[in-house]
Amino acid sequence: MENKEKLLRNILTNYWNENPLLFVVITGAIIRLLAVFFSKGYGMHDDHFLVIEAAQSWVDDFDYNNWLPKNRPDNIPTGHSFFYVGLHYLLFSVFQFLKIHDPQFKMLIVRLLHALYSLSIIYYGYKIAYKVAGQTVARNVGIFLALLWFFPNMSVRNLVEFVCIPPLLCSTWILFKNENKVSYIPFLIAGIIAGVAVSIRFQSIIFVGGLTLVVFINRKFIGTFLFLSGVFIAVFLTQATDLFTWGRPFAEFAEYIRYNINHAYQYLTQKWYMYLLFISGMLIPPISLYLIFGFIRNWKKNLILFLPATIFLVFHSAFPNKQERFILPVIPFIIILGLIGWQQFLDTSNFLRKKRKILKSTWVFFWIINSILLVPVSIAYSKKSRVESMIYLSKQDDFRNFIIESSHKSDYTLLPLFYLNKWVSYAYVTGNNPLSNIVKYYDSYNKPNYIIFWEDIDLENRMQEFRNSFPSIQFEAMILPSFIDRFMHLLNPGHLKMEIIYIYKIPE
């Protein structure tokens, strides 16, 4: 047994030393496979309802979000790119053709495809770091991108803020490796790839603007023109659906800009330094502080890594509407340039050479905390009770429709109908919409025969209220939240509720 362990260590050490790129990519693939198989559900509203629900509903000849012109009588778009959603529409159409209807299996394939796609983040991060600082730093960058605690989970989510990262990195790498070459074709190719990133996430245009500025500063004027031409070509082609749906080019993009300007203060507004605090926390201090220092220290030597990310960060820090996910695209760039700059600072600092033990202990602390978080976050089944409640109802042969009972609060939570395999217009009871309204229009809701009681707050009184109108309701199932959902509730009980779901049936 001891000999086998020694042999395994030797093999891993050899790969780490002789094939470091392959080593970090395989390492990243292994942990992402755990996320593929176990990290079911969805992280937040946008990575499910703005992608999966929309795409599947189009396959089923329905328009869940009312994005299509037939449901927009004013002929005004909603400001959403159809490109990334459209790719899922094509994938789900293939599933439909193959008669694959199990939503969990479909999402398994979606997660697998995203996991494979995300490995390019590790690849391009390694290649950029290798060109700038050599193998030692490149290995550190690669393993950091492979095993950073929240990356595997994000890698299998349908979150456009993360999905746009690979083309941004790829475009940067193409520009970077060809900066001293005479050929202009790479500028066009880099522009096309950058344009794909913009079509995935419109706000990526700020980062792409930063790339354009760097090429211009480097006095590559023809390259600047070709790069912008590539961006335009890609955005035009990937947004060509606007010509067919709205009769004009870039309709969704224009509406996206108009909407965000007009509603800048409608959503979460935070202090300008909110993203700096977020990055410092997510990258685990004090290592996060090393990375920020290294990122800033080397700005002039590696402008192509620094300037686009900084412009993107400054813009979002100044813009009123701030949500943590908005800043995800720049985190790999902070890691890459941060590790490069920090290592170069270590190599030139006589003071830090004497503090090697202290510095090593901070890295040990980082990897301990990162490892503690990595596995549970990577296998987290987020929003489990919401998903499983829909799956439960989908298996009931007599199911017609359901009512959400959420009278203990003024609103209700959207449930993922993708997992129900049926598009229904369900009723809801809230503090502002009493049960009497539902009873009055019971037939118009296709006579719901199941009730979903949301959370266990004041549950007995809420059930009694229902029994006054439906005296024969019967308990069917109780669906508990996942470990990660319970843990998040424990961390923030004021904003994240304990999502226990009770399913009752209304007998005929």
SSE order and pairing:
Elements: H1 2-18, H2 20-38, H3 46-49, H4 52-59, H5 82-97, H6 103-133, H7 135-147, H8 151-155, H9 160-163, H10 165-177, H11 185-200, H12 204-217, H13 221-238, H14 241-245, H15 251-262, H16 274-282, H17 287-297, H18 303-318, H19 331-348, H20 350-353, H21 356-378, H22 384-394, E1 402-406, E2 427-430, H23 435-440, E3 450-454, H24 459-469, E4 474-479, H25 483-491, E5 501-505
Parallel strand pairs: 1-2, 1-3
Antiparallel strand pairs: 3-5, 4-5
Helix pairs in contact: 1-2, 2-6, 2-7, 4-5, 6-7, 6-10, 6-19, 7-19, 10-11, 11-13, 12-13, 12-18, 17-19
Give a quick rundown of the structure.
The chain is 62% helix and 5% strand. The protein has helices spanning 2-18, 20-38, 46-49, 52-59, 82-97, 103-133, 135-147, 151-155, 160-163, 165-177, 185-200, 204-217, 221-238, 241-245, 251-262, 274-282, 287-297, 303-318, 331-348, 350-353, 356-378, 384-394, 435-440, 459-469, 483-491; strands at residues 402-406, 427-430, 450-454, 474-479, 501-505.
Q: Averaging pLDDT over every residue, what do you get? A: 92
Overall tally of structural domains: 2
- Taken as a percent bin, the fraction of beta residues is under 5%
For the record, give the distance between the C-alpha atoms at the N and C termini, rounded to a whole number: 64 Å
User: What series of H and E elements makes up the topology?
Assistant: HHHHHHHHHHHHHHHHHHHHHHEEHEHEHE
